[in-house]
Design goal:
The chain is mainly α. It contains five helices and no strands. It has helices at 2-9, 13-29, 36-61, 67-91, 93-98. The model has no long low-confidence stretch (mean pLDDT 81).
């Protein structure tokens, strides 16, 4: 049990928890568009993007304090959309540029 606790302690809970909450709120707001599977994928995508990008964004912007929690929550909400946009843009960058709104 101690090894599991040590393994979990290495994760940034200050990033993951706000991302999960933000992602869950986004999913609940659009629950008619999601099945259980798509909701889970959207939530995991948001948490992944928040886990990977939060520290870099906060450092780049020079923010301090609780800014990482706020950025993580926003990335939790938008993470799935960012991944989908990157997939579309990588397939056809010109089409992604022309379809931006």
């Amino acid at each position: 049990m101690g090894q599991i606790a040590e393994w979990l302690a290495q994760f940034k809970t200050a990033t993951i928890l706000p991302a999960v909450v933000g992602g869950a709120i986004a999913i609940l707001l659009e629950k008619s568009r999601h099945t259980w599977g798509t909701a889970l994928i959207a939530l995991l995508s948001g948490v992944f993007v928040a886990y990977v990008a939060t520290d870099s964004i906060v450092e780049y912007l020079g923010w301090e304090g609780n800014a990482s929690s706020t950025v993580a929550a926003v990335l939790g909400i938008t993470g799935r959309n960012l991944i989908m946009w990157i997939l579309v843009a990588s397939r056809d960058p010109l089409k992604a540029w022309k379809n931006r709104k």
